Every structure is written in C-alpha cells, then in structure tokens.
Amino acid sequence: MASKLLRITYVKSAIGYRREQRETLRSLGLRKLHQSVEHPDTPTIRGMIAKVQHLVRVEELEGASSE
Q1: What is the per-residue pLDDT across 15-31, written as a single tens digit (0 to 9) for each?
Q2: What span, in angstroms and rounded, lies between the C-alpha atoms of 41 and 43?
Q3: pLDDT number for residue 1
Q4: What is the pTM of this model?
Q5: Of 9, 12, 42, 46, which is the most buried if we count CB atoms within 10 A?
C-alpha cells in the first residue's frame, strides 16, 4: 500500500509564539530547528500543521517507507 507521507521541517523558532503552538511542535516530534520528521498524511496531522504553518515547511512524499 502506497500511502502518502509528509516530511515536516522545523524552520522558524517558536520563541515569542503562544504556548499552544510550541506544544503542537513538540507533539509533532519537532525539538530542534531544521529537524525533519515524517508522518502519514492524516486529517489530524494536517490540522496540527495548520496551527504552526508559519513555523514549518511541509513536503509531500510518496509512501517509500515499509512499516
């Protein structure tokens, strides 16, 4: 099954932004600037990205991982 993956890269510091946005970054698995994580393309993940879209860069990948 080739499900879509999203590569999310933390590109701008969350200092000075609301605590809720910093917590959203942490729950996405982002800890350090320029760190990237991959998540499946689900409505939940898309909603989290929408909250912090000004702090991250998102790339769509075709499901290359075998989980």
Answers
A1: 999 999 999 999 999 99
A2: 7
A3: 45
A4: 0.86
A5: 9
- Which residue has 């991250």 as its token pair? 56
Its sign, for the CA torsion 12, 14, 18, 22, is positive
DSSP-assigned states of every residue in the chain: ---EEEEEEE-S--TTS-HHHHHHHHHTT--STT-EEEEE--HHHHHHHHHTTTTEEEEEEE-----
Contact 62, 38 (CB under 8 A): no
What is the Cα–Cα distance from 67 to 21, expressed in whole angstroms?
29
Distance CA 26, CA 47 (A): 14
